[in-house]
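Today's session is about reading a structure prediction critically. Students often jump straight to the picture, but the first step is always the sequence itself: look for stretches that repeat, for charged clusters, for runs of hydrophobic residues. Only then move on to the predicted structure, which in these notes is written as discrete structure tokens rather than atom positions. Here is the chain we will use throughout the hour.
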Amino acid sequence: MTTTTRPAPAPSRGGVRAVHLWIGVAVLAVGGYLSLGIGAATSVGIGDLFPPTQSEWHILATSRIPRLMAVLMAGASLSVAGLIMQRITANRFVSPSTSGTVEAAVLGILIATMFFNSTSLVVKMLIAIITAILGTMIFLQMLQRIQHREGIVVALVGLMYGGVLAAITTFVAYQRDMVQYLDIWTTGSFSGILEGRYEPLYTVLVVGVIGYLFADRFTVIGMGESFATNLGLNYKRLLYIGLIVVSVMAAVVVVVVGAIPFLGLIVPNVVTLLMGDNVKKVLPVTALAGAGFVLACDVAGRMITYPYEIPVATIAGVIGGVVFIWLILRSAKGAAV
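Below is the predicted structure for this chain, in token form.
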């Protein structure tokens, strides 16, 4: 009888100290101030924020503050979703955008639009969550049937699976003359965020708390089913709890904002490379780093071609693609050694 052992998570590299969180909060505060002072309405600039007049406050309350909140919540939630997914699958190249989760959510939005066109955003969000969960479950079932689970192999399988789902979505949209909607759902942008149109994103805060409460157990199940079972944990139940947390976060962001490529892949990888793999310790920093990354992309997108703007998904895709290639090369170099 042979036994298979899985490598334990990488040792903590100093852990998360209070100074890390305070630095992250300070950087976000500066970025948030810049974000509030940039917009098409030139009457509200960076120097007009303290104190704002009544008309300036109206612009801030209806447009810029909702946009800032959406940016922060979307960035934090997708990064945390990627962290949890990488831990429960024990693979650094798995994320909502490389496992078919995002594509399944887009397919759900298309189905909701086809059959419930006049319903509220919440109903479309619920349908997208269901399809995202189902799509991610299929991906996990595929992983269990793969003999060679090297990081890049799993990433390629996930990308191909997502491509199949995207092709199905495009085909159905073409048949229903709805292809024009796909750009909205697949290209993350905050230009349309206004008061009354971003509030469903607060759902990710509740789900994020649930993910934090289960963080230690997610770390354990990432070591393998036999290891987790020997410690008295219900591996399957925890796996599906993690799956639901990830799917809800990804689906909500896609419904409200659109897809942001590579975010859930690169941010958790960079943070864990610096601080280790303990989910509970690095989750707060991952959330801050994800929020800061998306905020930086949003501010840059509004400043590069001002008064026009570049979608966040475009800038995040360029940066994320470069970092993704670097991670692949780094992984290949490590395997060669």
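Discussion point for the tutorial: The two ends are 30 Å apart (CA to CA).
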